[in-house]
Design goal:
With 135 residues, this protein is mostly helical. It contains two helices and no strands.
Length: 135
């Protein structure tokens, strides 16, 4: 058996067949390695695209935050202006109320004066009538 085995190993056809089997296995391994490399390249490209998308998303988010900060500042200024406007409105309302009170008081005083003048005029007319009657 040993001789058959050694003869078998030394047979050029067997050696050629074994060599072809080994070359076939090497080719299969190389094909798997190429496929794995292609997968790695594809994964690297996908990772690069994801990183770029994340960077772009971060830039957009930063811009949105800046916009929000700007809008918040504008809103605060508007609210401060509203507070100032409301204070001015209240001040003017108080001024109008004071002027209305003053006008009402002046009207009352004017009416009282008019009544007093009307009474004096009646007295004067009455005295004039009395003098005419005596003359």
């Amino acid at each position: 058996e040993q001789r058959v085995a050694s003869l078998h190993v030394q047979d050029p056809a067997v050696l050629q067949a074994e060599k072809l089997l080994l070359l076939n296995k090497i080719a299969e391994e190389e094909a798997r390695a190429v496929e794995a490399a292609r997968g790695a390249v594809s994964a690297a490209k996908m990772l690069k695209a994801k990183r770029q998308a994340a960077a772009e998303g971060a830039a957009v988010l930063q811009q949105l935050r800046a916009n929000c900060a700007r809008d918040a500042a504008a809103l605060q200024q508007t609210e401060q202006a509203n507070v100032a406007t409301k204070a001015e409105i209240r001040r003017r309302e108080r001024a109008v109320q004071a002027q209305t009170k003053e006008n009402t008081q002046a009207e009352e005083e004017g009416s009282a004066m008019a009544e007093e003048l009307a009474r004096i005029l009646q007295e004067v007319e009455h005295k004039v009538d009395l003098r005419r009657q005596h003359h």
